């Protein structure tokens, strides 16, 4: 049997038609910050929701992008993150999340140690090495802990901070192309009103802390990042900030942000294979009327079978493995026209488990290339498959 | 390449911290209050972080020297372990650290002297031969080029009570520092060894078997006492031939009679760690074999199905005993 041309109708085929993709979710505060990205990536505007929303794909990649305009400040940002996550309905548990926008800064760190800083320049791009709730920091430094004595011991006395890790093989700074602005990794500090004093090293802005706190509810911490583009400095003052300057600074950062998203998307390790296994498991669980606990048990058996490759065939492809599993399970299942009862599902599971044990030890003596007889699964003490009896007397093959 | 070093503010100006940072001139340094705010956070993905883990420099507070688990030892009256580092440069797919820590970042506690002071206190209180195992939560030598810990430990050991013994457990070939100094009789360098094909498949980033054996031989030639740790034993079809070949390679290159200790232990993990490991690597063939929970004292521990475990352990032990004598042999039962 040519497994690549198997006639078995499996969910694998539809899944494997898609190349791997990583959902990307972006939150910006202002329309003027969103426009350069939406235009460069040719995102389409969606209407009807409470927020401005753009959708499309990252150029040259198949990563689906959603970009939302939250409005200024923490509350709006956190609310927009929640709304954006809700649009996914749990289907994007490993999305990359990015907060991008403009910020003010006076000094940025080369190594983040306070004695090794350099002046910030308008247009510099800051990839956050940490995100600090600077408003809370100020309260604590002044001896005012808002959580003291109010039943929040985990938060009491601590400055809320987040540390987006950089897992790239080359530093973030090296993502910079020849025509890109400077790139720095530095702290991003969130305040409640526009900052002009810039007491500490880093970029000051008004959303990132809320973004981190909210986005981390929806994905893994390695995939949540903040990028800020310097729009003003202590030397320039806020007077230099207007619609054109913000749009221009953001537009200049688009190629760099695109590369950064491409880099971070590449860190994820879950491939579409996971989706294919999930579909396979779900389909068989429904067919065999598995309980919730049995579904978990069955899912792990399928994972194990995929991990070792059915029959332990060297270099067997993922697609071939799932097709072979489909063949095996159909044999164990017996006559597809018979009504399914719980006891039948248990029997199939038991036989499948025994077979997976054998396969994992390199001892399974069944492969689809052999004649379609019953798989031998009695080594671990399980019953010989009796699909005929289990299925109410129907033929097993 | 370590791209980010998080440093607790309290240790930023310590000479040891500065020395580490000087060895990582391209790394980005981020100040933090306590290492736990990075290392112990929720929503971390160990597998993803293994791409390029960061380094955290911190001060270890609280209890620094702990009793080793029951059954863990190489003949001493009392056994202790300490962890000057959490996590490892290498990426061995069977490693329990993947199930134990939320983060794959590496933590280096730079207050080495506090560890040595605590070891002194424990050894002073102990009656018999007391063993202190390094490399329980890390590899003892893999990070030596940056940490200099082994060098500092061997320095410190010469001033510790005579009943204190140190095991440096490793897969690393970073032995230049040890070879450059006189051997210490109370320091054992113990290598974890697996058949070459196993090392290549599941011990990612580690030196191959040949290089580890070369390091062992050079240490032995220089007068250092060495140990061999065949732990964990991993089941695979044809394992007897693999281990027979491994022992042949090992004992033809080393002076078997001069080996301080040899231990064997099967692959086993606490149940929770195993569950996390499976969640991290559902596609890993090593974890696809038949496992089951132990009974009695082994309740809560996951290992191979009992018949496999027995076949593996007894088969390999019988092979091993053809090369060593009983006094050198220590089964690892924890």
How would you describe this protein?
The complex is a heterodimer of chains A (397) and B (334). With 397 residues, chain A is of the alpha/beta class. In chain A, 36% of the residues lie in helices and 17% in strands. Chain A has helices spanning 11-16, 31-40, 74-88, 134-141, 208-215, 243-265, 272-287, 292-308, 318-333, 342-360, 387-390, and strands at residues 24-28, 44-46, 52-57, 64-69, 96-105, 107-109, 117-119, 125-133, 161-162, 183-190, 203-205, 224-232. In chain A, strand 3 and strand 4 (64-69) form a beta hairpin. In chain A, helix 8 (292-308) packs parallel to helix 10. Chain B has helices spanning 15-22, 36-39, 46-49, 97-100, 112-125, 144-147, 149-157, 176-179, 196-202, 209-221, 239-253, 271-280, 306-320, and strands spanning 4-8, 28-32, 55-58, 65-67, 78-82, 85-86, 91-92, 106-109, 130-134, 164-170, 187-192, 203-204, 225-233, 261-266, 268-270, 291-293, 301-304, 329-331. The radius of gyration of chain B is 20 Å and the shape is globular. The mean pLDDT of chain B is 95. Chain A binds chain B through residues 111-114, 129-130, 158-159, 161, 163, 165-169, 171, 185, 187, 216, 219-223, 267-269, 273-274, 300, 303-308, 356-357, 360-363, 380, and chain B through 1, 3-4, 6-7, 12, 26-33, 37-38, 41-45, 47-49, 51-52, 54, 105, 235-237, 278, 282-285, 287-290, 305, 308.
Task: Output the keywords.
heterodimer; A: alpha/beta; two-stranded antiparallel ribbon; elongated; disordered N terminus; B: 334 residues; alpha/beta; 8-stranded mixed β-sheet; globular
In short:
Chain A has 397 residues and is α/β, with parallel strands linked by helices. Chain A is 36% helix and 17% strand.
Helix share bin of chain A: 25-40%
Content-based structural category of chain A: alpha/beta
Q: How are the strands of the biggest sheet of chain B laid out side by side? A: 4-5-9-10-11-13-14-18
Reported for the largest beta sheet of chain A, the result is: 5 strands, mixed, barrel
Oligomer: heterodimer
Distance between the termini of chain B: 34 Å
Shape designation of chain A: elongated
Largest sheet of chain B at a glance?
8 strands, mixed
């Amino acid at each position: 049997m040519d497994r690549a041309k198997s006639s078995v109708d499996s969910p694998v085929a539809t899944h494997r038609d898609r190349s791997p993709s990583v959902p990307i979710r972006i939150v910006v505060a202002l329309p003027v910050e969103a426009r350069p990205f939406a235009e460069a990536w040719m995102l389409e505007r969606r209407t009807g929701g409470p927020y401005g929303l753009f959708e499309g794909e990252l150029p040259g990649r198949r990563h689906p992008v959603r970009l939302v305009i939250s409005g200024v400040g923490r509350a709006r940002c956190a609310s927009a993150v929640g709304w954006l996550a809700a649009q996914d309905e749990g289907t994007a548990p490993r999305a990359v999340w990015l907060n991008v926008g403009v910020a003010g800064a006076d000094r940025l760190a080369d190594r983040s140690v306070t004695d090794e800083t350099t002046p910030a320049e308008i247009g510099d791009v800051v990839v956050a090495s940490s995100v600090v709730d600077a408003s809370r920091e100020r309260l604590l430094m002044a001896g005012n802990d808002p959580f003291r004595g109010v039943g929040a011991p985990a938060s009491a006395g601590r400055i809320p901070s987040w540390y987006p890790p950089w897992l790239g093989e080359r530093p973030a700074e090296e993502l910079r192309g020849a025509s890109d602005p400077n790139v720095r990794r530095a702290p991003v500090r969130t305040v409640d009103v526009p900052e002009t004093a810039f007491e500490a090293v880093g970029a000051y802005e008004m959303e990132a802390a809320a973004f981190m706190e909210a986005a981390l509810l929806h994905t893994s911490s390695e995939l949540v990042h903040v990028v800020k583009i310097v729009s003003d400095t202590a030397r320039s003052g806020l007077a230099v900030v207007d619609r054109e300057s913000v749009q221009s600074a953001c537009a200049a950062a688009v190629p760099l942000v695109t590369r950064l998203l491409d880099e971070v998307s590449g860190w994820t390790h879950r491939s579409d294979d996971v989706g294919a296994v999930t579909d396979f498991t779900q389909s068989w669980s429904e067919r065999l009327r598995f309980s919730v606990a049995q579904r978990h048990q069955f899912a792990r058996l399928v994972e194990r079978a995929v991990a070792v490759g059915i029959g332990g065939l060297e270099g067997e492809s993922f697609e071939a493995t799932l097709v072979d599993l489909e063949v095996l399970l159909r044999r164990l299942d017996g006559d597809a026209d018979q009504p399914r009862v719980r006891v039948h599902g248990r029997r199939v599971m038991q036989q499948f488990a025994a077979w997976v044990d054998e396969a994992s030890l390199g001892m399974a003596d069944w492969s689809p290339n052999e004649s379609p007889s019953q798989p031998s699964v009695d080594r671990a003490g399980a019953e010989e498959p009796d699909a005929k009896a289990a299925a109410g007397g129907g033929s097993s093959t | 390449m370590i791209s980010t070093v998080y440093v607790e503010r309290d240790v930023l100006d310590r000479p040891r911290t500065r020395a580490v940072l000087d060895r990582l001139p391209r790394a980005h340094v981020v100040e933090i209050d306590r290492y736990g705010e990075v290392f112990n956070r929720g929503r971390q993905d160990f597998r993803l972080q293994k791409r390029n883990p960061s380094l955290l420099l911190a001060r270890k507070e609280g209890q620094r020297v702990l009793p080793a688990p029951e059954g863990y030892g190489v003949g001493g009256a009392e056994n202790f372990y300490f962890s000057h580092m959490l996590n490892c440069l290498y990426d061995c797919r069977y490693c329990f650290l993947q199930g134990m820590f939320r983060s794959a970042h590496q933590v280096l506690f730079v207050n080495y002297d506090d560890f040595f002071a605590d070891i002194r206190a424990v050894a002073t209180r102990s009656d018999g031969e007391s063993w202190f195992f390094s490399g329980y939560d890390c590899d003892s030598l893999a990070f030596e080029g940056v940490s200099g810990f082994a060098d500092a430990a061997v320095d410190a050991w010469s001033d510790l009570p005579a009943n204190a013994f140190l095991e440096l457990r490793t897969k690393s070939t970073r032995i230049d520092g040890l070879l450059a100094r006189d051997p210490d009789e109370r320091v054992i360098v113990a290598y974890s060894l697996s058949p070459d094909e196993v090392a290549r498949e599941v011990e990612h980033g580690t030196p191959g078997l040949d290089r580890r054996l070369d390091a062992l031989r050079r240490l032995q030639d220089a007068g250092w006492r060495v140990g061999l740790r065949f732990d964990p034993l991993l089941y695979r079809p044809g394992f007897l031939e693999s281990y027979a070949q491994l022992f042949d390679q090992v004992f033809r290159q080393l002076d078997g009679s001069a080996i301080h200790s040899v231990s064997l232990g099967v692959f086993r993990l606490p149940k929770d760690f195993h569950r996390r490991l499976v969640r991290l690597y559902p596609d890993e063939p090593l974890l696809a074999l038949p496992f089951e929970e132990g009974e009695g004292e082994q309740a809560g521990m996951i290992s191979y199905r009992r018949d496999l475990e027995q076949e593996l352990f007894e088969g390999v032990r019988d092979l091993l005993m053809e090369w060593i004598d009983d006094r050198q042999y220590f089964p690892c039962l924890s």
